[in-house]
Amino acid sequence: MCGIVGVLNFDGRSVPAPVLSDMADALQHRGPDGEGHCIEGSVGLYHKRLAIIDLTSGQQPMTSVRGNTTIVFNGEIYNYVELRADLVRRGHQFRTTSDTEVILEMYAAHGPACVNMLNGMFAFLLYDRERNIVFTARDHFGIKPLYYAATKHALLYASEIKALLRHPDLQAETDHSSMREYVTFQFVTGDRTLFKGVRKLLPGHYQVIDLASGRVQTERYWEPRFTIDPYHTEEYFVLEVRRLLEDATRLQMRSDVPVGAYLSGGMDSSIVTALAAAHNANGNVTSRLQTFTGSFREGPEFDESRYARELADATGAMMHEIVCTEQQFVDLMPRLVYQMDEPVAGPGLFPQFLVARCAAAHVKVVLGGQGGDEIFGGYARYMVAYLEQALKGAIFETNEEAEHIVSLKSIVPNLPALRAYAPMMQQFWRQGVFEPMDRRYFRLIDRSGGALSLFSNDFRSCYVAEELFARFQQVFNHPDTQSYYNKMTHFDLVTGLPALLHVEDRVSMAASLESRVPLLDYRIADLVASMPPGMKFRGGELKYILKRAAADLVPRSIAERKDKMGFPVPLHMWAKGSSRDFFADVLLSQTARDRGIFDAAEVEKLMSYESAFSRRLWGLLNLELWHRQFIDA
Fold it and tell me: Residues with catalytic annotation?
């Protein structure tokens, strides 16, 4: 994993080396092992390297054997060994054993269509001298980031927004429409960011930039397709999921440096850890798999380490635990907001960084369980949504889907999984019961409901809920997704998941650690998307197919847990306790009051009455710190 920068000038000027270097210096944490640049007139590329594969000859920018293409690349191509072997059979020559050179030769063989054959996490800029174009691409799920911005005479690219902002022609300004979307979802949908004029290349997309005309052509090469396979049995799908889980882990264990695993005690990280430990054992790796977990001492609801320890003991892995503290939160939050570039997702960012920093002291690559909830249906809100649908169908004897995926009778045995989600259900059923499916799911994920009163009259006057709902509908009501279940998981795959991957990338890169996510192999997503919804969500059971496929990998005490809550942070306790001054200094300061976004009196009340697991206070804190870091500066 690395950091990349590109500057494409369209006014005939050469790219200034000091500007390119200064932009790249903002990414030093992403690539402390080496650096390099290539400037050819109006094209400038820079690379900061974190060396993982081919430690001696994988330096970038890398130019092809023919000399016609040059690339800067961030990420890993897991199937590079197989692709390289095929290319060699076709007559291609290689000077290195790196996956970077494989991309160059894949492009030589297939052009932009090469991305369809890459299994990995990647973002790259490839300069084609013969065609006078630059080809950019991002992986299927957006595991690796790539941002861009157009100035009057140039197009700028970088792995992080902070690098773009070092270009003298780009100024940091707030995109107020995006900020309203952040208040609603705690992420921004589509290709926009919180910075006006700064865009992200969307997951599963590539661009071709014509350097003569400045024309940018953007194409989607992949998205999850929910074309149902009615022919195969449940047993077939279970076996195929297991085969792909094992193969994805095998591919992602490829490394020339030590590999460890995050271990939270939940289903997804436990499966990845078990498969990684088995892979090591089968490969006669003598050292134990290193695993890493985080916990809090504020109460048992914030400490899942007992489950992580049980899995580590069962697999023979070595577990490192770090206890996250309130003082660390206060000390680190300004730095974390800077590392993030823009706020997304929840407070799990804080313990994730501490665990990543702990892991970086022992290994250079770590595997995680990200993506399991979105692909296999693990969020409690899916069950809440279908509980309402089951009630609606039972009362009115109706069915809004082609088949009854869940009935009231079938879902009842699974309802104990909702025990910890009473606040969510109270908010959900407060209004709009039995509305259309899109309206109901919007209510489930809308985080503005109890938060708008915390904002100023000026902010609220510009907040148009129906406008935000319309943006939501464009994604939710995808023509491929006929069932409620597929609509929900599709929305989360293409909107919420990239936000979580944003966190995954930034916290690992801030610690100069490479994070890999085996469950996000596009082959697994394609397979699961093709399954009949009633099979995936049998009786309303979360992750039904995944549990069956991994039944022998994970202890029943973990697989049958009813209390899994993600990575909860005792933020509400800290805001009322000894860290109250920190929250007040940020949110009730004169700077925050002059900004005119928050209602200070309502924010002060919230600091005393914030509920457990709510993200209102977290969202406010991030917005204010973000303004201070990037806009005020």
Answer: 2
